[in-house]
UniProtKB/TrEMBL annotation:
Annotated InterPro entries: AB_hydrolase_fold (IPR029058), Xaa-Pro-like_dom (IPR000383)
Xaa-Pro dipeptidyl-peptidase-like domain residues: 129-277
SUPFAM superfamilies, A to Z: alpha/beta-Hydrolases
Species in which this protein is naturally found: Gimesia fumaroli
UniProt keyword Signal present: yes
Keyword Phosphoprotein part of the UniProt annotation: no
TM stretches of this protein: none
One Pfam family in the UniProt entry: Peptidase_S15
Protein name: Acetyl xylan esterase (AXE1)
Length: 702
């Protein structure tokens, strides 16, 4: 069978990508290289294997079952809705008055540049430069140029990244286009923030379902509205391009808004494998990523542009958008274009060079727009050059006092406000709805069951009247964990078992000293004086109360602690996020698995189970209790009063906060909340009063 030219190209690029990925026959072991991205300890290697397993699981299922156009068209509607949601744009904000303002206008060599601003939402200012031909007859096509991370700042004055990329807009205007170049949130004239999780420790962004990518997408949508309002613009011929960060924003707007008729994202996308396994995520701020609630790989974003003309543009030595991932996105997207019968509408341009705005990249973009928006295939003879100083392109002399750019993360995605139920029927309905939302929006990364085939291992020993057990089990594949159980030697079926979920500081100051007394953990080094003291305190407590205590640390804590470098810890957490998980969300799964393992042991099958935790671990226990049966009591100390300061769970603040979760738990189990301000938990108390709980059901203590 004779192969079409684009099919030959696909095969060739696939071979190139495979060679790059493996490094040829002389490459080092790829598994070892992959593991070193995170760290070199056994725990780091297991985490690397975990990320590899789940990344490839998502990659292999991405667009997998799209066999015909009818199926794709159905999926396409669903995917677009999901993308709006994952960018924090569902429900879509109202399109309020843009209040556009032109603050200055300059005439240059064949074009006019206007310094403009508009408000995409009240107080959310977009600054930009609009370039248009000096002479034109009738309406002309327009390009939205979205900038990458090239901010310009002189003597403490911010001019925006539009100044750095001015040559693109100027070329378009000199060649018969209108081009609107807009600043981004962080590097615009009004400084916003792109680095919430990357640098600022704002993990509550995940809980809010917030990403600055959503702000950039919304600003682009409103920029198209502005372009279509201009008398010079043919509103039916709009294109978008940009590089690096601007490349990413080009993807968002092209996927979301079909007013874009041709797109050239430059160095703005690669696949999940490059980000999570190969470590490209470590070179990107938060603006590059959606909140991956529905666990996509990035070809799903690219496919939403089909069948409109799309040129994927990249260099061959780009370390943060590696070539093999770019080619993979292209190959998977081509299958959708083939379903439409327009493979010629998808292009792949690879030029030599690093992550840089090269002339070769520009020329191909210019030709693409000329072909699809103007029907012009003539040679590009004019170079893109800069004409203006930063001072000439600045929009504001004084920043507007009502600007919300600097703190837009606090209001962009609406936070839920829960009502106190009127009666038990309404409360039941609210609980079930919240639980369903948690499973679909926060814990979608949980598997339906443990995916590891490793059997649970139980080791038992006795010491000084105590039975000591080490229960080793897999929470998931590549996530081996241990339960350390203590109970009186003479007790065969204790009436109560306490599961104590420890945080890192508790492990370091306490259980780390005692670990060697448990079977399978023996050390030739005897207990230290401190360790012996702690053991005797533990022995006294267990024998006097005739109870069993199980100590547990979820993934990332205790024996399973990963690379302690702060930067690596941050990027590990961001990898979970890219997989549609969060570290704390998966720790909740670990506690669920620990509960299941305990309750599966014959000696504990009829015991009352009590969960205890402090700080963040308390909140982890709280959520685990909502999804497991027969939890008699929760004893929680110093738990944060909100996810703003507590564990990061994807999207959770869009429908509930910790007081609502605590009320859900208290309707199932007795709850003791220690070291708490009752005012912070007023909602929980109000629900208890409405439901008629007795004083033992919910106890809140300062």
């Amino acid at each position: 069978m004779t192969q079409k030219p684009h099919q030959i190209l696909v095969l060739a690029l696939t071979l190139i990508a495979l060679l790059i990925q493996t490094g040829g026959s002389q490459a080092a072991n790829p598994v070892q290289d992959r593991r070193k991205v995170i760290g070199t300890t056994a725990a780091d290697e297991r985490l690397s294997d975990y990320f590899h397993h789940h990344t490839m699981r998502l990659a292999n299922r991405s667009l997998k079952n799209i066999k015909d156009l009818k199926t794709w068209e159905q999926k396409r509607v669903q995917y677009r809705k999901q993308l709006f949601e994952m960018l924090g744009l569902s429900p879509l904000p109202p399109k309020t008055d843009l209040k556009p303002e032109i603050t200055n206008s300059l005439t240059s060599d064949g074009f006019i540049v206007e310094n403009i601003t508009f408000q995409s939402r009240p107080g959310l200012y977009v600054t930009g430069n609009l370039y248009r031909p000096l002479k034109q007859e009738g309406k002309v096509p327009a390009i939205l140029y979205v900038c990458g991370h090239g901010g310009v700042k002189k003597n403490g004055i911010i001019y925006g990244n539009k100044v750095h990329y001015q040559h693109h807009g100027e070329w378009f205007a000199r060649n018969g286009y209108v081009c609107l170049t807009i600043d981004t949130l962080q590097l615009g004239e009004i400084e916003g923030l792109h680095h919430g999780t990357y640098r600022e420790g704002m993990w509550w962004w995940l809980s809010r379902g917030y990403t600055p990518a959503g702000v950039e997408a919304w600003n682009c949508i409103r920029a198209l509205d502005y372009l279509q309002s201009r008398p010079e613009v043919d509103g039916g011929k709009l294109g978008v391009t940009g590089r690096s960060g601007g490349g990413a924003y080009s993807w968002w707007i092209a996927a979301l808004d079909e007013r874009i008729k041709a797109a050239v994202p430059v160095a703005g996308i690669t696949n999940l494998k490059n980000h999570v396994i190969d470590g490209a995520v470590e070179g990107h701020c938060d603006c590059m990523f959606m909140v991956n609630t529905y666990q996509w790989d990035y070809a799903q974003v690219a496919a939403l542009v089909a069948p409109r003309p799309l040129l994927i543009s990249n260099t061959d030595k780009d370390s943060i958008f590696p070539l093999d991932g770019v080619v993979d996105v292209y190959n998977k997207t081509m299958k959708i274009y083939e379903l439409y019968g327009v493979p010629e509408n998808l292009g792949l341009q690879i030029t030599e060079g690093p992550h840089k705005d090269t002339q070769e990249l520009r020329i191909h973009a210019f030709r693409w727009f000329n072909h699809f928006l103007k029907g012009d295939d003539s040679l590009i003879e004019m170079a893109a050059t800069k004409f203006h100083t930063p001072e000439e392109l600045k929009v504001f002399k004084t920043l507007p006092e009502d600007q919300k750019n600097a703190k837009i993360q606090e209001t962009f995605v609406k936070q839920a406000k829960a009502k106190v139920p009127e009666d038990s029927a309404q409360w039941h309905q609210m609980r079930e709805q919240w639980k369903d939302q948690l499973m679909k929006k926060s814990f979608r990364g949980w598997l339906k069951k443990n995916d590891s085939k490793t059997k649970t291992k139980i080791e038992t020993a006795t010491r000084d009247g105590l039975t000591l057990q080490t229960i080793s089990f897999d929470s998931q594949k590549h996530v081996p964990l241990k339960l350390f159980v203590v109970m009186p030697e003479t007790t065969k079926m204790p009436q109560q078992v306490e599961l104590a979920v420890l945080n890192q500081s508790e492990w370091d100051t306490w259980l780390k000293e005692l670990a060697s007394v448990f079977p399978g953990m023996e050390s030739t080094t005897p207990l230290s004086a401190q360790g012996e003291k702690l053991f005797q305190e533990l022995r006294k407590n267990v024998l006097e109360n005739q109870t069993a205590i199980a100590y547990f640390t979820p993934r990332g804590v205790g024996l399973d602690a990963w690379n302690p470098a702060e930067r690596k810890q941050t990027q590990i957490r961001r990898r979970f996020y890219l997989l549609g998980q969060s570290l704390e969300g998966m720790q909740i799964w670990d506690v669920r698995r620990a509960i299941q393992e305990l309750q599966a042991q014959p000696e504990f099958s009829k015991s009352d189970l009590r969960l205890t935790g402090t700080g963040q671990a308390a909140a982890v226990c709280l959520y685990a209790s909502l999804f497991e049966k027969n939890i008699s009591e929760l004893d929680l100390t110093g738990m944060p009063a909100s996810h703003q300061n507590g564990p990061a769970l994807l999207n959770v603040l869009r429908f509930l906060d910790l007081p609502q979760a605590l009320a859900m738990a208290a309707s199932r189990s007795r709850v003791k909340l220690n070291q708490a301000n009752p005012k912070d938990w007023a909602y929980t108390s109000q629900v208890g009063q409405k439901m008629g709980w007795d004083e033992k059901q919910l106890q809140i203590r300062k």
